[in-house]
Amino acid sequence: MSEGNGQQGKKRLTNPPKTVEIRIQRRENPDATAYTETFEIPYRQNLNVISALLEIRKNPVTKDGRQTTPPVWDMNCLEQVCGICTMVINGCVRQSCSALIDDILLANGGNTIILEPMSKFPNVRDLVVNRSEMFKYLKRVHAWIELDGSYDLGPGPHISQEVQQERYAYSRCMTCGCCLEACPQYHDDNYIGPQAIAQARLFNMHPTGKITMDERLNGLLEEDGITNCGNAQNCIQVCPMGIPLTRAIYETNRDVTVNALFGWLRK
Amino acid sequence: MASNGLKIAVVGGGLAGLAATMKIAEAGYDVDLLSIVPVKRSHSVCAQGGINGAVNTKGEGDSPWKHFDDTVYGGDFLANQPPVEKMCEAAPKIIYLFDRMGVPFSRTKEGLLDFRRFGGTLHNRTAFAGASTGQQLLYALDEQVRKFETDGKVNKYEGWEMLSLVLDDHQVCRGLVAMNLQTLELKAFQADAVIMATGGPGLVFGKSTNSQVCTGSAVSACYQQGAKYANGEFIQVHPTSIPGEDKLRLMSESARGEGGRVWVPKNQGDTRQPRDIPTSERWYFLEEKYPAYGNLVPRDIATREIFQVCLEGYGIGGENQVFLDLTHIPKEVLDAKLGAILEIYEMFVGDDPRYVPMRIFPGVHYSMGGLWVDYEQRTNIPGLFAAGECDYSIHGANRLGANSLVSCVHGGFVAAPNAIDYAKNVERGVAETNGIYDAELQKQQEINNQIIKNEGTENQYKIHEEMGKVMTDNVTVVRYNDRLKATDDKLLELMDRYKNISINDSNLWATQAVPHARQLWNMLNLARVVTLGALNRDESRGAHYKPDFPERNDEEWLKTTIAEYSAEAPILSYEAVDIGLIEPRKRDYSKGKVLSAAATEKGGAAQFVPQGNEEKPENTSAEEIWEEEGDKIKDGESFKEITEDKS
Fold this sequence. Notes:
CATH topology of the largest domain in chain A: Fumarate Reductase Iron-sulfur Protein, Chain B, domain 2
Radius of gyration of chain B: 24 Å
CATH architecture of the largest domain in chain B: 3-Layer(bba) Sandwich
Oligomer: heterodimer
Shape of chain B: globular
Largest sheet of chain A: 5 strands, mixed
CATH topology of the largest domain in chain B: FAD/NAD(P)-binding domain
Largest sheet of chain B: 6 strands, antiparallel
């Protein structure tokens, strides 16, 4: 029995506040100016940010009793696997579904939760941003395997457990945008960013994907390409899936260099 | 290839929708792909365990026919058999295709695909990519479709929600009307064929394991326009999910496989911390009621018992929660065997399940029912097809684990060529169809205007909560006719109150209030289909359980429920089930002891033990199957397993 000493590996909020203050950055539409509204909800254990938002949406009245419009945010899977509910919470970019109020208060003290939209993407309304640029980057790096067709051609190539496991880590990227939000180099679409580079790496590592590696590397050679990485290594700190982004950048950069140096030999 | 201006619309960008889209684009035709969220964020990403296909790489003598038999048996014989057989035949090819697309499936030492065991079978038949197989499969299709998007064959409309079909005077589907979720702009999409691939209706139950887009709204719209909805009453409830204020997250069965014990305090409303409650004051109700299986009773029984204990007021603190306790197992063992799922619990609940018992409760998980389709995925509306969880065709009265991913992809693969065939041959009644798009647009705009204009006193989110609660209380695990009737009355009351809602949002740009109001009305209509289908079906079969009618009744109820819309109430009719390939036999959980021990020994960690225990009765047709397939099986061990299977 492991009862008794040191049982909670995790620290708990010992003296929880009666209420939690939720400060939300509001913006009516992309052309409007942003402002902040403060809401207050009763504290409950195990509340996450989404639950707090749901409660506010049901009855959108500010802390000082003023009726307002319901705050708008994106959410879907609520299991940190779709990536859609990403926002900046008390200064850290993360998914709001897995952001527990207890943890945030424990880390920051006080009783205030501050919610802001990601700053590197166009702000649609309140906490919603438009991340379609990220999907365009995936097109640029040809983040797919070129198939002869989807008809029955038997199994794929043999792959070792080691390569599979390395690829698996990259394949968990949910295009949430945390890495771009945290990257000091990325702003105004000037850098293709870690996620697209890691996806290029994912397919370059596959025996079939290797065949068209040049196409993927070409997508990284443009002005906003891989050389814009400033090696701040923020991306790997904030990636919710723990993807080895800096390794992907390093290894892909090596491929780019090798390709530039010796690629002409093959022509 | 010239597409001759032929155009197909696919609604929904999960596995089924993307599978269909890829096939259509590959054949050289244009696709409009509509999705509420960017397709990469669809609900398919939530599937964890794997995808079934009898590839038979483990020398076990597995075969598509055995997969077929397990699926039909697990579904309590309610599925029409021919399409299930086709799916099981196609499954190995589907897995190989995903392998070629670069899905990082787990591998054997030789570098081949690895397979694991899952519920309802004795074979290693489930290919998996870590514990996030759905995510990986969805991404693979997303990538292929992105390639076709780059080639200009696919037009994605992400951030659009379908509101209705465009039907001509002959009730032929000519396209659909959808709403832009930022601008609320309505647009008519002309299409020669429409494929619905919108997933399940979990949100009808308020909280479920489903994603927020899984409202069933678009399917309900089709139903209200004349599409038949089949077997709506069959809703799978998973025994162990993690209750949250916002959703129910799944807790894998492997926690019990590793020795997890389910209990509640004997004193109702006991507020002590679990570790302060002595063993003598804990009620291990599964172990008490099922001494042979204990916590590893089959899924539907575990679900039923947990639900019942809470209804009787024994839930923790009087709430709908019971303990799933792993704290008696050494931390090192838990980390080695259950690490990943324990981290999920820790991340979302904040407690460390190595030291604090988990609080779990059954959660609505999957709808076996859906749009009625024929064997070609055609609905009863010409030009309208359906695939994936939103169609009813494969799983009968109960779905086996890891069969959903394969049914989604297969459904999309069948729907696509049939939609192309139909679209090629359909006559476009130009003169006649000209006005129908404008008429439908106007009709839908008027509904929006009415919602926006309404300034009633009702709160739509509260109505949704009330619907979810009454549906969860009465139309999930245990069903009584009086309560089902009362539920329908409550739904009618909610529909009445719905007319008096106010959207409470003066800013219409990117508002979520108008879309939610549209979804809510459609959910209420679907809720009635589920409820009344359950009320009518006086038997117990698969996920549908009525204590007053505890037995499966093939004589009267081996038939598909068909609901058709009318303004007063769904009109129910029944259709015979095609059981031409495997004769129905009884599902029997009572004599599983011998197999239980064998299965546990062989399988070790036993995520699959509960369903693997389902002993097949003696009159199983396994012998005939083996005679048929005997020449394919040379392996001595597999033969031994078959004899065990029958013992």
